[in-house]
Amino acid sequence: MHVLIVEDEERLAALLQRGLTAQNYAVTVAHNGIDGLWHAQETAFDVIVLDVMLPGLNGLEVCRRMREESIWSPVLLLTARGSVEDRVDGLDAGADDYLMKPFAFDELTARLRALLRRGACERPTSLTVGNLVVDPASRDVTTPFGRADLTAREFALVELFARRSGEVLRRDQMFEHAWDFASLPASNVIDQHVASLRRKLDDVRSTAEIVTVRGVGYRMVAAS
Fold first, then answer.
1. Which of 90, 102, 138, 141 sits CB 3.0–4.6 Å from 95 for a disulfide?
2. Which is nearest to 8 in space by CA: 44, 46, 39, 50?
3. Is residue 54 within 8 Å of residue 62, measured between CB atoms?
């Protein structure tokens, strides 16, 4: 497996290269966005580890340009910023996952394994489940009957559901995606937001349903 690491902190890049090489990955390292983009254009990497704050081109712009050029290698963003808006911006740019700095090396390798299992696939510009269309760029959520008026966290949840339509999502996965790491929400906050999201999708007659999977979490399916 060939990994591209694009990280301007040379010490961190060297540590990642050494650790991944010890686990039998082939590793290429770039220290700025321009070189990182060039490597991605020249080589079909199995997965890319991409820092957000880079000289030359920032990580979000590198990711956008890769996707515009139909480079679909899975991308794990490394970021020191953990707000919902920052994470949504990363997903909008075409990233597959994100990891907050500082992080444990074991968590990074676990996320890389998950991305490698998923493999490279083209990311559509909009997400469709039933008659529901989620546009990550404009953040519009629509059906033929209107536009759903969602909060930022409701949008983050519906985008996650649409990206992983049919998959069962645990509450901790949903919390990690839609809340700041510093937040200490009430234990039922996920259920409250899902209930609100269901009502708003019903208002626009969405055929995409959020189904409760008892004891596990939720999943979105297209009603038959």
1. 90
2. 50
3. yes
Rounded Cα distance between 21 and 152, Å, is 40
Q: 59, 32 in Cβ contact below 8 A? A: no
Rounded-to-integer distance, Cα 112 and Cα 99, Å: 11
Residue at token pair 């509450």: 171
CA 101 centroid distance within chain: 16
User: Helix, strand, coil proportions of the chain in percent (round to 5)?
Assistant: 40, 25, 35
Asked if pLDDT for residue 183 goes beyond 60, the answer is: no
Higher pLDDT, 126 or 201: 201
**Proportion of the chain above pLDDT 70, given as a percent:** 89
Q: Greater confidence, 129 or 124?
A: 129
Written as six digits, the tokens of 170 are 């645990």
Q: What is the pLDDT of residue 124?
A: 63
**127-129 and 132-135 as β-strands: parallel, antiparallel, unpaired?**
antiparallel
Angle between helices 171-178 and 152-163 (to 10 degrees): 130
On whether the pTM is more than 0.85, the answer is no
N residues, the chain = 224
Spatial distance between the Cα atoms of 42 and 22, rounded to a whole number of angstroms: 25
Angle at 160 between CA 169 and CA 132, to 5 degrees: 110
With residue 118 as reference, give the H or E element that holds it.
Answer: helix 105-118
